[in-house]
Amino acid sequence: MTRTRLDAHIAALDAPEGLKTVLTVVAATCADISKVVAGGALAGALGASGQINVQDEEQKKLDVMTNDMLTEALLASPAVAGVASEEMDEVQPASNPAGEYLVLFDPLDGSSNIDINAPVGTIVSVLKSATATPTEADFMQSGRHQVAALYAVYGPQTMLVLTTGAGVKGFTLSNDGDWILTHDEIAISPDTKEFAINMSNLRHWAEPVQTYVGDLLKGEEGPRAKNFNMRWVAAMVADVHRILMRGGVFLYPWDRREPNKPGKLRLMYEGNPMAFLVEQAGGKATTDGRQAILDVQPEHLHQRIPVALGSANEIDAYAGV
Ligand code: AFP
């Protein structure tokens, strides 16, 4: 059986050549990142970098390495007008006179998993640029304006999951270094018995979130009248990938630990690209069960957002509490 390769899929897309170039560069860089991740200690990829990022978080060596890899590859591509990263304070214009696209990324999602050899990933969002010389204001587009979103998950298999607005496809990295289509038309089941949330924060959540999760925990004897299972990988990429494969809900709500912040996750690098993928796979991606993440107008680059996404009927149940 002849399998479709990502490069053939990209070539056949009904999309501008510039977007195809961007996707090709991102896919090649994710394949390179996969080698560094797999190398672990042998690739000098474990441990802290000794630097603090704009989010006030200690960067791991791999955060810095992967950020450099994506930034350098994208800024060198003539189709790119500029990039923004969870790991960089400011946007980086590309100085490409023909640059048409803005690429935003979390180069290494789930970095606390690196040193324990658990899954990590890369998340990428692509926007059209109104100018070849973009400033931060040009990046302030709602998620609905995305022309592509993808993640790579570096787990037992390395996979790249992509949408350009016409469904979601999954590609597995072969031993020869090719991305091969293995998951066509990914669809999230509307119902689920599985949820993902960091339960250790329970006492900090708002009352409705505590009520909703409390009802799930009561199982067959409770108001939901069914038993639920829980999973938490602590890398959004891996938790969302599980939901794309077998349904479920992923929640990272506002909590009282830092009441002035709307949540932990970032709108531009995590919320928007994941919401685009989830909606394209038939799921819902919201802040609170009701408000679609993709309709949120960004106000600043590193903005945070509460996230509730996954199986459509379960997100409705979350909204109903
Ligand atoms: P790191 O990249 O700093 O490890 O954060 C990962 C993340 O942004 C997201 O991928 C996880 O779902 C979430 O944070 C995990 O948060 P907790 O550490 O609070 O469980």
UniProtKB/TrEMBL annotation:
Keywords, comma-separated and alphabetical: Carbohydrate metabolism, Cytoplasm, Hydrolase, Magnesium, Metal-binding
Domain of life: Bacteria
Pathway it works in: Carbohydrate biosynthesis
Gene Ontology process terms (BP): fructose 1,6-bisphosphate metabolic process; fructose 6-phosphate metabolic process; fructose metabolic process; gluconeogenesis; sucrose biosynthetic process
Cofactor annotation remark: Binds 2 magnesium ions per subunit.
EC identifiers of the protein: 3.1.3.11
Annotated InterPro entries: FBPase_C_dom, FBPase_class-1, FBPase_N, FBPtase
Chief location: cytoplasm
GO molecular function terms noted in the UniProt entry: fructose 1,6-bisphosphate 1-phosphatase activity; magnesium ion binding
Fructose-1-6-bisphosphatase class 1 C-terminal domain boundaries: 189-317
Cofactor(s), by name: Mg(2+)
Places the protein is found: Cytoplasm
Annotated binding of Mg(2+) 1, by residue: 86, 106, 108
Record domain Fructose-1-6-bisphosphatase class I N-terminal: where: 3-183
Pfam families documented for this protein: FBPase (PF00316), FBPase_C (PF18913)
Binding site for substrate: 109-112, 198, 264
EC supergroup of this enzyme: hydrolase
Family matches, as NCBIfam families: PRK09293.1-3
Subunit structure: Homotetramer.
Name this polypeptide is given: Fructose-1,6-bisphosphatase class 1
Native source species: Brevundimonas vesicularis (Pseudomonas vesicularis)
Gene: fbp
